[in-house]
Amino acid sequence: MAHLNTRANIAGPDDFYAELLAAHEGLSKAESDALNARLILLLANHIGDRAVLTEALAAAAHAPGGDKA
Amino acid sequence: MSKIFETPLYPYQRSADQDASQPVRHPVIVIGAGPIGLGAAIDLARQDVPVLVLDDNDKVSWGSRAICFAKRPLEILDRLGCGDPMVDKGVVWNTGKVFFDERQVYGFNLLPEEGHRRPAFINLQQYYFELYLYERLRELEADGKPVQIRGGNKVVSVTPKDDHVALTVETPDGPYRLETDWLIACDGAGSPTRAMMGLDFIGRVFEDNFLIADVVMNADFPTERWFWFDPPFNRNQSALLHKQPDGVWRIDLQLGWDIDKEEEKKPENVIPRLKAMLGPDVEFDLEWVSIYTFQCRRMEKFRHGRVIFAGDAAHQVSPFGARGANSGLQDTDNLVWKLKLVMDGKAPESLLDSYDLERVYGADENILNSSRSTDFITPKSDVSRQFRDAVLDLSERYEFARPFVNSGRLSVPCTYDGSPLNGPDAAGLPVRTRPGSPAVDAPVSGGWLLDRLGDRFQLLAINTEVPASLEEGGIAIEGLSLSANDDPSGALKGRYLGNAASAVYLMRPDQHVAARWTAYDEKAVRAALNTATGRA
Q: Which domain holds residue B502?
């Protein structure tokens, strides 16, 4: 069974990060929230694997700064 | 011309029971002559179980109410002998459109699977549904079957005793008393029986109001289901347009919780809303308007000794997905054969607990689906709305998002996975006909499989031979052997054999699969029959 890949997997991380921020530039809070929601749905569908998605939800839900992983 | 639902069908008449010196004892009394009570009475009467229906009213449903009837209930109605008038009158539709804000985001065609006698569902006003059931009941009565219906008979007290239930019934001539061995309460979401017995009605509460209007239109709208999320004519709420027979259109407008119901129902408030929705040029007449309030909840137990609850009296769901009347008919479909076996002394009373178990399972499935639809249609938080709107926005351009759009998941039959009545399964046979499943229809020998199943235990044998009849502990099992010659379309093979060379299915009287094997084994069949009747 596939697992959530939590190792570095994107070539050019700085470029991607800049592209992510650029997508939100000039948007209101509501527009940014809507974009994020659309993005999550698009990416989730691309992943498709239900077990991986559940792992991703659990990983994202861990409180910042905690040591629960 | 007076409307069907304004015409008394079974007006109050004094019965001999009212003049008896002692309360008259009946084998089964059904309270309520709605779709579920009538369905229960027909099923019992057909099987020669004497049944008395008490109803405080004397007419069919006021207004259209439940309008969408799914395939499985239609199959149950076929078994009861009144599927044809429903389907002949009903509107069959396959195309739906979804609108968001001011635009259509997508359309869909349901493309129902081939090889079934009945369509995925029909639209039919509840008053027709009840009328055809009522006519079927009268037909059975005329044929000498033991069924009576008494209008203007309001049950005002229910007292469970050890071996019967005592009732007090209010009539225009005053009260009288009755006794019954078994009581089936089909008296709706507000069930007076439930209240009189002080029983719970628990669950997650969604409180919302819908303006429901039946309009007769001189407009050429197509036979499609149109659903709007957040339309300009009903901001932050939903709307539904659905076609019914006789040129009547059903319009549901969500109103939210905090409203003045009496105000909203007034024509001067309803008509502008409908004009905003339909456009200024469409002429229409209002046939019926109602405000509908729903909650998603169920009783903890549907059986309380000799009092058994069915339909909305036992469980209530949102209107999204047509799960009310549809699941209620599955309740009595499940109950009646069990009750008959118990009354005939062929199965222990505990068999009735499997009604509770199987139909609570069905109710939970419906409540889950219905709650999820409600969460999508009425987002309860900012983030819930963001995802809902994101799904709708994406659905316009991307096919992947459309399955997320939830304007009601239409009722599909319940499979009783894990039921104590289920016997063995055989590896390799199709999943959809596993033990607990309702039989899947298929064309066989110029007719339909489901027309040959039901009302008794049967062994359905495919590509193998089984005895024409068997008896186990007073219960008969009838053999039905079919082969490739009976299956020109291959649907029987696809639905019951898969890659297996042969199969033997033990079918319950409600057309559900009790157990299955790839070859006939008499001892295993006998054991499975005992399991399926609570005698194991």
A: 431-532
Which of B387, B395, B398 is the best mutation test for A, with the most CBs of A within 10 A? B387
| C-beta atoms of B401 and A45 within 8 A | yes
Q: How far apart are CA A66 and CA B8, in angstroms?
A: 70
For the stretch B328-354, pLDDT in tens is 999 999 999 999 999 999 999 999 999
Residue found under tokens 């470029």: A15
Contacts 24+ apart (CB under 8 A), B106-112: B106/B395, B106/B396, B106/B402, B106/B405, B107/B224, B108/B402
Q: Which residues contact B400 (CB under 8 A, 6 or more apart)?
A: A42, A45, B394
What is this model's ipTM? 0.93
B444 with B512, same domain?
yes
Residue B82 sits at the vertex; the CA angle it makes with B80 and B87, to the nearest 5 degrees, is: 130
A8 min Cα distance to partner chain B (Å): 27
Q: Which B residues 326-385 touch A at CB under 8 Å?
A: 382-383
pLDDT tops 60 at residue B1: no
Q: Per-residue confidence at B205, pLDDT binned at 50, 70, 90?
A: low
Final residue of a structural domain among B322, B348, B366: B366
Q: What is the pLDDT of residues B64-80, one digit of tens each?
A: 788 899 999 999 999 99
pTM of the model: 0.93
Question: How many domains does the structure of chain B reveal?
Answer: 3
